[in-house]
Amino acid sequence: MKTYKSKFGYEIMLFLTLLFGSIIGFIIYQNEPMEAITSVSGTFLLVYGLCLYLNFSTVYTITNDGILKVKCGFLYNKWFDINKINSIAKTGNLISSPAPSLDRIELTYGKFDLIVISPKDKIGFALELIKINPKIQNKLTG
User: Fold this and answer.
1) Residues 47, 39: contact at Cβ < 8 Å?
2) Backbone dihedral region of 86: left (phi > 0), alpha (psi from -120 to 50 degrees) or beta?
3) Could you say which of 29, 71, 125, 129 has the lowest number of CB atoms within 10 Å?
4) Residues 36, 27 contacting (CB under 8 angstroms)
5) Rounded (5°) CA angle 120-122-123
6) Phi first, then psi: what are they for 59, rounded to 5°?
7) Beta-bridge mates of residue 105
8) Per-residue pLDDT in tens (0 to 9) along the chain, 142 residues
9) Alpha-carbon span 54 to 138, nearest angstrom
10) What is the 3 state secondary structure string of the chain?
């Protein structure tokens, strides 16, 4: 069994920091009541905390019996048969997925299905999958 951590999503965390920082700054600039500032700040901290939690808790585990387990906090926990994976490729796809970073790869499996993930060691992850299923097309390096 081998576990790969997700790449940290600095881009998303920076975006959230700038977005909420701007909103809080605007509210302060508008001399809004302290309750508004506190509630917006509290909401920001909850969302920011959830995103940090998802960044640190997202893992991809390849089991010895040919299963890929994808776990993203308490929100996402699925298993995939590695022998049904068709290809691995870089992607800029921004769909909601268990990939906290924008540096992502796409796994296609079955007939029309795909999952987008962001392991820190993409090449090592791909090679480990190909060891189990040599039929996987590796489009990462090409």
Assistant:
1) no
2) alpha
3) 29
4) yes
5) 135
6) -140, 155
7) 90, 117
8) 899 999 999 999 999 999 999 999 999 999 999 999 999 999 999 999 999 999 999 999 999 999 999 999 998 999 999 999 999 999 988 888 899 999 999 999 988 899 999 999 999 999 999 999 999 999 987 5
9) 27
10) CEEEEECCCHHHHHHHHHHHHHHHHHHHHCCCCHHHHHHHHHHHHHHHHHHHHHHHHEEEEECCCCEEEEEECCCEEEEEEHHHEEEEEEECCCCCCCCCCCCEEEEEECCCEEEEECECCHHHHHHHHHHHCCCCEECCCC
**Residue 60 · residue 125 · CB < 8 Å:** yes
46: tokens are: 């909850």
Buried b or exposed e, range 112-134, using 16+ CB within 10 angstroms? eebbbbbbeebeebbebbbebee
pTM for this one? 0.88
